[in-house]
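Protein chain data
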Amino acid sequence: RAGGRMARAAAAAATFERRVLRAAAEHQYLRVRLELPDGGARPNVAQLKQLVVSALRELHGEVGAALPVDILTYDEKTLSAILRVISSGLVKLWSALTLLGSYQNRRCAFRVLQTSPFLLALAGNSRELVL
């Protein structure tokens, strides 16, 4: 009788199935920073949006430029922004930003600091925590 219980318990344990949903989130969020090593004029939010669209167009053509990207926050002092893109466009956006090399004929670089399917995850960064 004890052997029967153990066999049933083992059978119940064997039916456990773990499910992982990939790309279940509709959007991905990126915290990025634009680096302009030679200083000069800083882009406003409209110019930053145009820079992102032109980076997408340069690498992925008109199809890439049509990718819906939203700038949720932008700090002109630090040149930091939080971008929102549909999940299927994350790789296109990330690659276009990474390969961008100039802004108004000046060298520049986008740094992707964080990425997450959850906006709340970008609210704080433990690496920047000062105690």
